[in-house]
Every structure is written in C-alpha cells, then in structure tokens.
Amino acid sequence: MLSKRAISAPASPIRRLVPYADDAKKRGIHVYHLNIGQPDIKTPKQWYEYIEKYKKDVVSYTHSQGIRELREKFSEYYNLWNITVQPDEIMVTNGGSEAIMFALGVVCDPDDEVIVVEPFYANYAGFASYLNIRLVPVTAKPEEGYRMPDIKEFEKVISPKTKAILFSNPSNPTGVVYSKEELKTIAEVAKKYNLVIISDEVYREFTFDGTQAISMFSFENIKDRLIIVDSLSKRYSACGARIGTFLTKNKEFYRAALKFAQARLCPAEITQYGALGLLEADEEYMKEVIKEYNIRRDIAFEEMSKIPDIVVHKPQGAFYLAAKLPVDDSEEFIKWMLSNFEVDGKTTMVAPLSGFYVTPGLGKSEIRIAYVLSAEKLKDAINIMAKAIEEYNKRSK
Amino acid sequence: MLSKRAISAPASPIRRLVPYADDAKKRGIHVYHLNIGQPDIKTPKQWYEYIEKYKKDVVSYTHSQGIRELREKFSEYYNLWNITVQPDEIMVTNGGSEAIMFALGVVCDPDDEVIVVEPFYANYAGFASYLNIRLVPVTAKPEEGYRMPDIKEFEKVISPKTKAILFSNPSNPTGVVYSKEELKTIAEVAKKYNLVIISDEVYREFTFDGTQAISMFSFENIKDRLIIVDSLSKRYSACGARIGTFLTKNKEFYRAALKFAQARLCPAEITQYGALGLLEADEEYMKEVIKEYNIRRDIAFEEMSKIPDIVVHKPQGAFYLAAKLPVDDSEEFIKWMLSNFEVDGKTTMVAPLSGFYVTPGLGKSEIRIAYVLSAEKLKDAINIMAKAIEEYNKRSK
C-alpha cells in the first residue's frame, strides 16, 4: 500500500545514524555531535521577550504569507544586504525547508529535473523525492576544494526537462563561499537555458577572512527567474523556531507559492512573534557569533589538517567543513566509531557525505563536520576521530 | 516558468474572498466572519504556562517525530478515546495539514486517485494538487442532509489507480456525524478494494445531542490500513499553534512518513511545549467549550431555518453548518453582500461551498457557516445575511 515516492524517499543521512549514537550513550559513552548543524550558541533573549510581549487570549491563524509586521522587518533586514524585496515579495515559511519545497513545487512538475551542485544539503533529495522531482548533479570535487564546476559541466546535463538550478551559498556541506565569477556561471546558464535559480542563502552572514557571500540578487538580469531561500535557524541559533522565508520578485512565483501556503494555513503564530524579536537582536550578538565560529573554523581546520592522508580545504563560510578521509567507507567508519571506539569514555559522531551526493558511489570516503561545539570540545572530538581513523585502518588491514 | 501543479493549484475558497472583506472594512463596515473556522474562544492558559516552564537557552531542533514527552501525553489522550496508539505510532506535525500531506504522500504517487466524500475540507484539493494526486468524489447531497453516500457510489468510482479514501468525521464543512453503519461502508470498501483510509477526526469532541463521533479506529479489521489525522487547533482554540498528529498502527506507513518528516527537520520546539500545556487543560474547559458551541449551533440552525426556501439540516458535530441558499451563485452573492450590502454598518462573510466540491457545478448555491462567534453576534450576522438574500434576489430579478 506504500507509494513509490515513500519507498524511494531517502532517510536523512544526518539523522539515520542516530540509533548508533543512542546505543553508545546507553553504554555510558559521551558522544560529541559534529553530525548536525545544531549550534550550542545562545538564542538572542529577544525571542522570549517578544513572545511575552505578544501574548494573546486566542492563539490564532495568521495570514498565510506571515504577519505583515514580520514581513516588514524582514524587508528592512534584506535591504541592509542589498536584497531589495518588499513585504509582499516575502513569504514566511516553516523553516527554510518549506521555502525550498514551495520553490520546487512552483517550478517543477513530476519528472522534471533540477540541477544541484553536489555535494548539496542532503534534505534537497528528500524534498525532491516527496515532490517526484529528479535531481541532476554537477559535481564539485574535494580535490579541487569543492569549487563551483565549470559552465560546461552544467551544459552537459541540461535537458528539455531541466527547470531550475538549486544550490546553497555559503555551501552546506562544504563551507565554500562562491566568488562573483562562479555565481556568474549560474546566472548565465539560467538565462541562456531559461531556468529558474533557487538560491539557498541561509548562511549569508557566516563568512570568514574578509570573504563576503554574494547574493544571487546582485545579478540584475536574472531577478525575474530567482527565488531566494532563507532561514533564521542558523543566524540566531534558533533551529527550533522553524522560521524561514521565500523571496522572489516574480509575482507569478509568489502567487503560486501563496496558494500552497494557503492550503497549509499559516506558520505558527507564536514563532512569528519570536522571530520579530530575533530580528531585533543587536549587531553585537552577530559579531560575537561570527567571531566564535571563526575560532572554531580555525581549530577544526587545523586539527583536521593533522590527519595523515586527509583531503581538506579551509572553508570560508557557513559552519561546516567537508573532508575526504583515508577510509574506504565513511558511513561504516562512523558506525564503527560509535559502536567500537572510545577515548576516556568519549567518541565522536560526524555525517557521512555520500547522502549529500546523487551520483552513486561519490562521497564514500567523505564526511561533513559541523563545528557547532566550543573550541575545546571541538579539538577533543576531532582528535578522537583522528585516533579512530588510525585504529580503524589497522583493524581492517 | 511555472509548473502545471502551481497553475492548477486551487486558491483557498475560504481565503480568496478576503480582499472583498478588506475593502468593506476600509469603507468602515463591520464584517462578521463566519467564513473561517477561527474561534473566538480563549486558548487554555496552560499554553503560555508551559512555554514559560520550558524556557531554554538554545531554541533547538527536536526529534522529527516530535518530542517524546508530547507523544506520550498524546498517547494517554488517545487511549481515553479508545484509540490505543503508542508514542511510536504518533507523529507530531505542523497542524493537521501536514499530517494529511504526509498521509497522501505515503500512499499515493502522481496520478493516483483518492476518493473523497464531497463537500470536503477544501484544502484537501490544495494538498492533492501539490502532490499531483487526483481527488475522485462521491457526493453527499444537501437534500439528504449530506449523509454518507451508499456503498455503490464508492464502487462506481473505484479504479486500479484508487489508493485511499479521505474524509472527515465529524464533517467539515457539513457538521454531519456519521453513524456506525455509515462508517462501516468506508471500512468495507477499503477492505474489499485494498484501499487505505485517511480519517480526519479533528472535530472528535465537538458533538451535540448525545451523538458520539466514532473513530475509524474502532473497526478492528482495517487497523493495518488506517491513518488518523488529528489537530489541537479547534479542540483548544489554538489554530495558530499548528500542532497536529499523524497516527497509524502500520509500521511501514509510519517509517515512510518519518522520512518525509526528517527532511523538514521538526515542528517548532516552543509550540510542542505549548501543546504539552494544552493537553493539561482541565475537563471543565472542554465541557464549557462544547456547551458554548451547542448554544451557537442551536441559534445558527434556528436562524438559518427561518430563511425562505433554504435547504438546511441540523448539524450534529464540528462547528460548521452547510446549507443551500435560494441564490443562483453563492460566491457572487457573498461578493455582493460584502461590496453592496450593510445593515447599520455591518455585513456578513460566509464561505461559498463550490470550492469544497471536485465535481464542477456542484455546491454553487451552497455555503458554509462556521459558528465561531458569540450567540448574539451570530444571530445578528445570520439575520443580516437573510436580509441580504432578499435584497439580492429582488435586485437580480
């Protein structure tokens, strides 16, 4: 009685190893979670302040596109980043997740194709499967620092079924921040082949070493074919708020997404009030957060670089680092690390990268680290993994 | 660049007349909103108490199926209603809306068919369109009090593409509470033709005159093919909480829905804490609420019955009443009522019923009233509508 889409839907590669971690915990082992982008940084205090401020007798539906006041505040925020969208060009969604689903639904019918830059945020595959859309990959290679593939690689995979290009910048899972030239590739391909660009820019503010994340919004000639996806989850360490946005200047896209939004009624009222508060967080908060991630990025990269035979590049953004480990199968290695390895009662969990690819076999030795723990813990966690690799490879030879 | 599914997605019949109401308000007219199921009843105070109680430094992701504690509490609640589901058979969703979408996705591929009893909750059509599923209607007729169609009507429309039957009990929009015999029809058809039953039981507690809403869970032989959809929105006057549930004893269904749930990460954390509070609301709260709706139901029915040439039956549940008005086109009538009619600076908005049907042309003279306002306002609102009908028919002849 199960649908084919239910059968073929991928289990989340980030969450599917959770039972192994749970088992380890049951045995009394402390597990460092570098597998999921759940930061330990405090959510701004304005979250609860605004929830308190907007207390209501009746917890009511809101407008399907989100409350006006929140869309106005978002508009001000985006204007600061030169993304000049008006409140009526902003839709509040249940996290960035729903914004991506709306974007895919607006543009694609079943069996249509969307080009993704692999490795990509793994849940794109889940959304595509739910909506019966085919993800067609162009591959960013670990040996080349996961940079944007050449325009020719895009042209190779375009078919009459291709409707859109979907990618994130800064990139989850690689931490790469694309240059203006690299993004121009996307803009040019989209323009030339009449494709829609779905640009996932949730890590916009997390960049290091003076790098700036350039929004696709800065390319004038593709504004009518652009949907930007955003989220408050990472920016304000508020993953559980589930507040994202769907931004577009294309009125047809907006109207279509609104129909999908109306069917599900609205995002939770109280989280929209909380989001109003988050957008009031002072600049100092963001500065401190970026500073902290910068420190962690440095430590994560430094410690990872010490691992013999690893392929790793210094990421410039987001809070992820992807690397190719000297192991045959990273998923097997992670299971083993959780099940059979410990140092002083501690072990480490990271995400296997194969689920972030569509091409079978790719990413098999790669992993993603989310550097969402404090510097000290992060260092300890990576050192434990380094020892685990050594042990694992001895064992299997 | 728009997908066919985006083009064909229906605009919500409940929300699409909102601009006419907004215009009326701009002209200084007071609009009675009987068009949407947004009650005026207070949400239990435990909502904010629990949100306060569970304050956290970091607003985090939860398990994709919802926090354990909430699923345990839901399990206790369902057990009281003889729906013996365990916490691992309960998934917390973004309102009943998402539970329906998961259910449809678990069972249907594009172009598959789902039988619906029309008139049905209009947003079913939106979800089906988003997932490229065809809704195939069997019709409940106003002249027959919108009772469940005969088993032969179901058998007439079953095809090899039919995968499920989706309906609500008590019914939104008709307020009908189905008898054991009527529900047996559904169970028998499902069993005989290997269909899944998606039973939307969100109005379970809203029944009058000693009527009981029987859960599909009480039919032993279809438990393996049953998905129950539930929501806290109406029960606790907490529509903006966006907390629903997806219940099933079928482990394959659950696992498949969990994959969809993992892709979108989790429902908002804070609303899950609030929901814990709602489930602590005392019995007195529910008793008072039902008593209040009972009074309103009586008034709504009494006032509606006075309208000449109306077809209306006394509803036994939910907080809706559907009726066939003596007008040619109820949508045109409602627009006219909002744009050209007032009594002492007031007018009334109701929902046109055509959007609650799939069969073209049906429901054209019908409307739905949500009796979610206080008795006095309700009476005034219906009287205004009665006068509007008289005026409208004079005008058009």
From TrEMBL, chains A, B:
Entry superkingdom: Bacteria
MF GO annotations: L-aspartate:2-oxoglutarate aminotransferase activity
Organism: Thermosipho affectus
Requisite cofactors: pyridoxal 5'-phosphate
Record protein name field: Aminotransferase
InterPro entries linked to this entry: Aminotransferase_I/II_large (IPR004839), AspAT/PAT-like (IPR050596), NHTrfase_class1_PyrdxlP-BS (IPR004838), PyrdxlP-dep_Trfase (IPR015424), PyrdxlP-dep_Trfase_major (IPR015421), PyrdxlP-dep_Trfase_small (IPR015422)
A Pfam family matched in the record: Aminotran_1_2
EC code: 2.6.1.-
Domain Aminotransferase class I/classII large: 31-383
Family statement: Belongs to the class-I pyridoxal-phosphate-dependent aminotransferase family.
Keyword list, A-Z: Aminotransferase, Pyridoxal phosphate, Transferase
Gene3D superfamilies assigned: Aspartate Aminotransferase, domain 1, Type I PLP-dependent aspartate aminotransferase-like (Major domain)
Coiled coil: none
Record keyword Transferase present: yes
